[in-house]
Specification:
By secondary structure, this protein is an alpha+beta fold. Helices cover 46% and strands 14% of the residues.
Amino acid sequence: MTHVARHVDHVLKTASHPAAAARSRLAASWMRSLTHHGLDPAQRAGVQRITEGALRERHERAGRMRAIAAPQMDALFRLVDGSGCGVLLTDAEGVVLDLRAAEGDTATFEHWGLAPGHDWSEGSEGTNGIGTCIAERREVIIHRDQHFRARNTAMSCMDAPIFGAQGELIGALDVSSARADQTEGFNQLIAAVVAQTARKIEAAHFRAAFPGTRIISAASDEEADAVTLLAVDADDILRGATRGARKAFRLAPTGPVTPLPASDIFGRADGPTGFEKAERAAVNRALARAGGNVSAAARSLGIGRATLYRRMKRLGLSESAA
């Protein structure tokens, strides 16, 4: 039995089992691919590609995300280029918008369908890094034979979702490789960098969406790796919150936040709690990183020096302590 035949047989048996969804997330994804999307793991036809016109429209809609992601993708590619990997950015539907790959590898990535305009949604390609990341809204690694389609089993894909300023999914960041010697351990290392880069894109996207507001970073016990940012205006009215902040402070998961005074949402009853703790922590971190230099700390927080002094006074933070 060939490798393709063995893979197809294994996928069909696993996905058809009555307890497939309970066995593992991978088995659940295979089951979705087979029963919900009606896909065939043995299909040899290439990855579906949208028209150039449709791709231009998607580029326009994702203009802000692409512009913000570009330098982060460049930095990520510099880290993984030597290992023969490509870096891809997709929209929320799994269509590839941008690719970073070595000049000598571009034709190979095109052949795989890992290039702008190709549809890697789970509904199109079954279990794969991009599509499953988007379907499950979480970081994933799909290593070689974990793919649904047999023709994709030469690849390893490491992905992380990107969430927008209103908590909505706006895209995914992917690193893909078809190196035969790429181990699962190495994939774990790449996946960590992919996740970190996706969070940087998400944070920058959030800051760009709320110009003129004060951006506060808050710690969250629920999702230590989540981007937990709050946008507050000059009157301390909450104007925005990232997906991580919405979870941490029990706000609506998506959509515009209710513009209420921050004190009403986070409370001030028994000393500094919620919002004030988050603000104090953010200021202390900025001062620590700046070595106590108030001007440098203010720049890192995106506020003026005088504004930071006022915040420090209100929070009971002295310049000598800084």
